[in-house]
Each structure stands twice: as structure tokens, then as C-alpha cells.
Amino acid sequence: MAITAQDVNKLRQMTGAGMMDCKKALTEAEGDFEKAVDILRKKGQKVSASRADRETKEGVVATRVTENGTKGTLLSLTCETDFVAKNEGFVTFANTLIDIAVANGATSQEAVLALPFENITVAEKIIEMTGKIGEKIDISHFEIITAETVVPYIHSNGKLGVLVGLVNTSGTDVEEAGKDVAMQIAAMNPVAVDKDGVDASTIEREIEIGKEQARAEGKPEEMLEKIAMGKLAKFYKESTLLSQQFVKDNSKSIAQYLDGVSKGMTVNAFKRISIG
């Protein structure tokens, strides 16, 4: 049967696929729109499989905070090239995905992929988008935190996002302080809120590095443990959020800065996602 330009345009509007792809799919499906959609999706699956080993080092980070400000969500959607990452349709897709995740109360990346998207799942929609765009697409991170007040921050390039959770706020407006701390996290990339949040393997590695450095400096073996513990204390100060010097005023730590904004206020959690 003859495939008209109106038919091709209709399928394009339905799927977002390219004109030639839509014409080929409709021709193969003999004008059956439902079959044509399946053909396009299968094309997407084929493209996705062929690009499975590609790296997705570009993309966009999206964030949402509930109306009451107590729960925040971060999602990163990644692709292969900066050209696609900056495409309005790609950015819109990332924001649609996080809206679906929040609306359905998803708690993990796997749960997001299983959610319904129109008449298919999110995972299937990503495959469909892969076919349309011609690049591998992934939800690379999905993070949630809860606190008295959650403050989000997206860096200007859209590839770095932070959520910071504040507690003991005493009802104070802490949006500005939260933004300051979120920007600190973006810039300084702390490993944990405080030393109690540093995992055991990191501590062991830092102690071992400290010992090796001291040994290389010719320090006696009986002094290595003490020297390494001193280096570990320095690591805590430089690499855990509350102990870090506040980048806007290095005369005080983040803990001191927050306490000065509202007595007893501190951070209970943070998440940082960086693409590339």
C-alpha cells in the first residue's frame, strides 16, 4: 500500500523517530501503525545492543525536592556526546524520568526502570530513545535523601548535582546556608559527613598510605603507626564535610558555619552526582 506523507508525520508525532525511519517502518508494517511502532522499538533495541559497550560520559543531572522540603531526589541521565546532552529533547526526557520516579515513590535505579512510561516501561522507553537518538543512554545514578530541610544544587553545566540534608534548623530559613554547603560539596567532594561516616576500607587505605609515606621518609618502624594516625586525622579534616574549611570563609569549618547560622544545625546526609 502507498504510505503518505501524512502517515509518516503521524507516526513521527507518535514516536519522535526520524522521517525516513518512520517511512521504512510503515512500509515494512504495510501501513499498520501498531506494528510500525514495534518495528521502531525493535530498531531501538538493536541500536542499544550494538552500543552496549560504549561509554556514557556526557549527560544531565536533574533534581527534585518535595513541597515540604524534607525529601530530595537526584537522577542522572547519561549519553555518549555533549551534543546530545545539550539537546532540549534529551534534557526534557531526563526531567520527565525524575518526575515519574518521584510520583511513583521509586527508591532505586532498578525501580525507576520498571515504572510505566506511557504504554511501556521506562527501561523500554530508554531503548526506544536510544534507537531515535543513535547513542547509548543510561540512568547512571538515582539518589534520595531525607532531612528536616533538603536543599538542592545543580552546577551551571548541568552535569553536577548535589542534595544536602540539614537538621536542627529550629524553623530558621536555611535555604542560603544549604546552598552554600551544597556548593562546598560540589567543589570539594567530601567522602562523608564526618569521620564516623568514612568506610573502614578507606580508613585502612589511608593508614597504610601514611605508614608507607613515613617509611619512605626514613622514620623508625615503631613510629609509623603514630605518624599514620596523625595523617589520618588530617585526612578527616580535609575530606569530611563538617571538618572542611568553609570555602567562602576559611577561618571556620562547615560545622562552625552552620552552628553560626542556627545553633546546633548540622548536616545529616548529602549526595553528589558528577557526570564525566
Residue windows where pLDDT falls under 50 for at least 5 positions: none
Q: Mean pLDDT, nearest integer?
A: 94
What fraction of residues sit in β-strands?
15-25%
Write down the secondary-structure element order. Answer: HHHEEHHHEEHEEEHHHEEHE
Rg over alpha carbons: 25 Å
Strand order of the largest sheet: 1-2-5
What does this structure look like?
By secondary structure, the chain is of the alpha+beta class. It is built from eleven helices and ten strands. Among the domains are: 5-50, Ubiquitin-associated (UBA) domain (Helicase, Ruva Protein, domain 3, Orthogonal Bundle); 54-146, Elongation factor Ts, dimerisation domain (Tetrahydropterin Synthase, Chain A), CATH 3.30.479. The model has no long low-confidence stretch (mean pLDDT 94). It has a three-stranded antiparallel beta sheet. It has helices at 5-15, 19-28, 33-50, 82-85, 88-103, 109-114, 122-133, 175-188, 200-216, 221-239, 254-261; strands at 58-65, 71-79, 116-117, 120-121, 138-146, 149-154, 160-167, 245-246, 249-253, 266-274.
